[in-house]
Specification:
The complex is a heterotrimer of chains A (97), B (167) and C (83).
Chain A: H1 8-24, H2 47-60, H3 69-90
Helix pairs in contact in A: 1-2, 1-3, 2-3
Chain B: H1 2-24, H2 34-45, H3 50-61, H4 65-79, H5 83-98, H6 104-122, H7 127-142, H8 146-159
Helix pairs in contact in B: 1-4, 1-6, 1-7, 2-3, 3-8, 4-5, 4-6, 4-7, 5-6
Chain C: H1 2-19, H2 23-45, H3 48-77
Helix pairs in contact in C: 1-2, 2-3
The chains are: A mainly alpha (97), B mainly alpha (167), C mainly alpha (83).
Chain lengths: 97, 167, 83
């Protein structure tokens, strides 16, 4: 049973960089209330999830960098760019919402 | 014998994880897609509760916290904690968007079960128990008696102020 | 032993699907069964790729069930013209 705590700094870097870069790119900080029905991409929903997922995938594939920190920062930037500009094109929201 | 006790405990924990998160995320409130409405009203016709029926219909028609819990447990079992849970959260998010759902319930379920598995491993429970436990948990909701389980889900929805307003 | 537990659940759900009469009821048993099959894929393959396979299978089966339920609802609404 292995808990990989060595890459904790990488995950923290991914979360922080994704939130900061997506706020800079103009995404709202929180979705509108009630959050569970909202389709707007924001700085705290899907951006950190995508960034953490990309970081985890590259750690599993062997590309770790310096304890994952630089990897996390790059993944955060990529995820913020993807959410801000491409998410609505890749996954359009359905018509009746 | 120890493993059976472990699977039972993991089943109870997974059941709580996905039912609480799904109810909080509004699954009993309204059907997310048309198919969920069909299943919900059919359960009501067969003697169940409408909000519980919408919950079960939403379970079938789109990945939600139940899928997030299962795939998060599978990820943690095969790829280690926490990488597996994070990869599972990303895959569940993509699956949610493909099924016309915003994605909050599924990713939250995957992330929370990752935290739970990390804590449970300190108590000696391996992630594989949660994989089998989640299958048992979903079977108690969808495989035993739809009317009774939908009434239980409706009562939980009422308690958490997520009961449906539709008729 | 985990594979045996999951396998028993899959077989039970399949039998209940065959015996049920109502179409929506069958969809619920099939959904429970696909949870079981997805878990069995992961438990049997045993490597990291198995997790990806299990996730892909599960999402695909959910999309299928979504399409079936949507069509059942539409079929319920159609009117048949008798000649």
């Amino acid at each position: 049973m292995i808990i990989h705590v060595t890459y904790l700094s990488g995950y923290l870097a991914a979360i922080i960089s994704s939130i900061i870069i997506s706020a800079i790119l103009g995404l709202p900080l929180t979705p509108e209330r009630p959050a569970r029905h909202s389709w707007t991409p924001s700085a705290i929903f899907p951006t950190p999830v995508i960034a953490l997922g990309l970081t985890a995938i590259s750690i599993k594939l062997g590309v770790t960098g310096i304890y994952g920190a630089d990897l996390g920062a790059v993944a955060g930037v990529l995820s913020a760019i993807m959410t801000a500009y491409f998410l609505e094109d890749i996954f359009p929201r359905p018509e009746d919402s | 014998m120890n493993e059976l006790v472990g699977v039972a405990a993991a089943a109870a924990i997974s059941w709580l994880n996905f039912v609480v998160i799904d109810t909080w995320m509004g699954l009993p409130e309204k059907p997310g897609v048309r198919g969920a409405d069909y299943i919900g009203r059919d359960i009501e016709k067969r003697g169940g509760d409408l909000a519980g029926g919408f919950f079960q219909g939403n379970l079938v028609c789109s990945p939600d916290a139940s899928a997030g819990t299962l795939l998060g447990a599978i990820g943690c079992y095969l790829m280690g904690v926490p990488e597996g849970g994070l990869v599972a959260a990303l895959l569940v998010f993509i699956g949610n968007r493909l099924c016309a759902d915003p994605g909050y319930a599924g990713t939250l379920g995957a992330l929370s079960i990752t935290v739970i598995i990390a804590l449970a491993s300190l108590a000696g429970m391996s992630p594989g128990l949660f994989v089998a436990g989640m299958v048992i948990a979903i079977t108690t909701i969808q495989g035993v008696s739809h009317s009774r389980s939908s009434r239980l889900l409706g009562a939980i929805a009422r308690r958490m102020d997520r009961y449906t307003d539709l008729k | 032993m985990l594979i045996q537990i999951t396998g028993i659940i899959v077989v039970l759900m399949a039998v209940r699907t065959l015996l049920a009469q109502d179409r929506a009821e069958r969809l619920l048993y099939l959904n429970a069964m696909s949870f079981g099959i997805s878990a069995m894929i992961a438990l049997y393959v045993g490597t990291a790729f198995g997790a990806v396979l299990a996730a892909v299978y599960f999402v695909a089966s959910t999309i299928t069930s979504n399409a079936i339920a949507h069509t059942l609802d539409r079929v319920g609404e159609e009117m048949v013209i008798e000649d």
